[in-house]
Amino acid sequence: MPSFPPMPSFHGPNRTTKTPRPQVPVPTARAIVDCGVYVDGARQPGHFTPQQALTAAERTDAGFVWIGLHDPDERQMNDIAAVFDLHPLAVEDAVQGRQRPKLERYGDTLFLVLSTVCYVEHAIDSTSEIVETGDIMVFTGPRFAVTVRHGEHTHLSNVRHELEEQPEQLKYGPTAVLHAVADHIVDTYVDVTESVGTDIDEMEEAVFTPASRIGIGSIYQLKREVVELRRAVAPLAVPLERLVNNTDLPVPTEIRRYLRDVADHQATVSDHISYFDEALSGLVNAALAKISVQQNTDMRKISAYAAMAAVPTMIAGVYGMNFDHMWLLHQVWGYPAVLIVMAVLCAALFRSFRRNGWL
């Protein structure tokens, strides 16, 4: 009889395990949203890899490359960094995301981090997110501008198209891209603060409406979102101030003038957010006072009804002590008389409480 090899065991120490599949690296091109070469403010025709784009720009007198990336991983970002000689610390920040707005200089390269915000439609009593945040990093050098976007909002495609229609602006080089991105993000700050201001107005109207039942939790939720908005907007003041006033940075004078306008808008938005914070603190106090007044009203009603119930309880308790010599105890009409006395006393108390506003 032929012999067969033993069947593999699926139990015990000899159980086979699956080897995890190696992760296939995603090509760098998948993270590139757009890559263009610009000479004298005009985009050059053709499709380029990052290295080809940089080579084409270096063949001209003042050409530069603008590459847009979306959520690149570490390997993809390192490939871009190798082409444009980006500093490893800045590359690490660009990969991780969730950075505080800041401006750093590495030789001739500027690294600007901006927080993005997006308003989410919601109900006034909703506990969902009201403001979503992300970030955009901008690298600028003598021959390149690299933008890195994290998040699904605040797209830069419209910024690129609008800037390509203004060749006189693009002639200033990569810092023109830095200004356009910063201006676009600050404009979204303005739109979001207007929407949040509308929410606060509706919340204020609801709080001061007598019959409304707005919960204080909704106010706290909106206040938390305002705090998150402030964390995104307020720190940007320092990088913008450096770009405007620090003449040692490689930023043309004309771009500084445009950035000064961006800084003014950012300061205006910061003032509005501070006002929102104060207004919501006042609404919290008003809501707490309203709750306290309602609780006092409820306690007065409860006390009034308890007093009315105490009168018949007292009389019934007295006549339930089983003494022989008690007034009206042996009269035929005693029981109805006691009931009438209870009703009259309760009616008198009800009228008194109603007159004093307790009921």
Automatic annotation (TrEMBL):
It is found in: Cell membrane. It catalyses: Mg(2+)(in) = Mg(2+)(out). One of its GO terms (cellular component) is plasma membrane. SUPFAM superfamilies: CorA soluble domain-like, Magnesium transport protein CorA, transmembrane region. The chain crosses the membrane at residues 302-321, 333-353. It holds the Pfam family CorA. Residues 1-25 are annotated as: Disordered. The keyword Magnesium applies. Keywords: Cell membrane, Ion transport, Magnesium, Membrane, Transmembrane, Transmembrane helix, Transport. InterPro entries: CorA_cytoplasmic_dom, CorA_TM1_TM2, MgTranspt_CorA/ZnTranspt_ZntB. Its main location: membrane. GO terms for molecular function: cobalt ion binding; cobalt ion transmembrane transporter activity; magnesium ion binding; magnesium ion transmembrane transporter activity. It is a multi-pass membrane protein. Belongs to the CorA metal ion transporter (MIT) (TC 1.A.35) family. Mediates influx of magnesium ions. Alternates between open and closed states. Activated by low cytoplasmic Mg(2+) levels. Inactive when cytoplasmic Mg(2+) levels are high. This is Magnesium transporter.
